[in-house]
Amino acid sequence: MGKLDNKVAIVTGGSRGIGTAIALALADEGADVAISYVAAEDRAKAVVSDLEAKGVRAAAFRADQTDVTQATGLIHQVVEQFGKLDILVNNVGIGGGGRIDEVDPDEAAIERQLTANYRSPAAAIREALPLLPDDGRIISISSGVGMRAGFPGMAYYTATKSALEGFSRGVARDLAGRGVTVNVIQSGFIDTDANPADGPAAAVFLPTTSMGRYGRGEEIAAGVVFLASPEASYVTGAVLRIDGGYGA
């Protein structure tokens, strides 16, 4: 028996990296899992196969989180196919940004980042509220940069993650009476294809952590499983740092 038997979870951006690790960990505890992806359909299908091999139902849906309409539509697609929704994991995030004193900033890129990192998760949360049961779970993946920029050129990214964290704390207050918990994980530097531990950025990133290493997707996923589980029923409005001491 798993902690999440008979639960249905959505993991946005579940076709790679941290999202895949989260999806697999939820399935290990018995949850049926829907993942979203943008372009990597073959990779998404492979993740679905891995999830189904664990004995749970799984599906992948194309949904671009830089489009609020697609982000909210995903909620209804999943409920239509799976019959319900218990756990919403907002995992998609767009990093980077630019210095605030740039002469010609990429305004379109700034808007895409704001939408993917804040507007779409906020809209998805609102869309999911009438569908979640009274023991539902909402978990959003933020970044240690949401609390501490750490580097030049992170102002826009930091702003989007700080907005997501502040929104989540407010929603936690609003939904506490229903027993729906709303929490955030601040992720540190995680070894993924997009940011490998042996990549060129490691020399800059690692000295800013206390532990001096990159994290693994499974370490973020363990935090998600805890927050999604019955043991976390008294945890809401929390920002859980899994960042190797970046924020220490």
TrEMBL record:
Any Pfam family matching the protein: adh_short_C2
Secreted recorded as keyword: no
Protein name: Oxidoreductase
Organism whose genome encodes this protein: Micromonospora arida
Gene3D superfamilies referenced in this protein's UniProt entry, alphabetically: NAD(P)-binding Rossmann-like Domain
GO molecular function: oxidoreductase activity
Keywords: Oxidoreductase
Domain Ketoreductase: 7-193
Family: Belongs to the short-chain dehydrogenases/reductases (SDR) family.
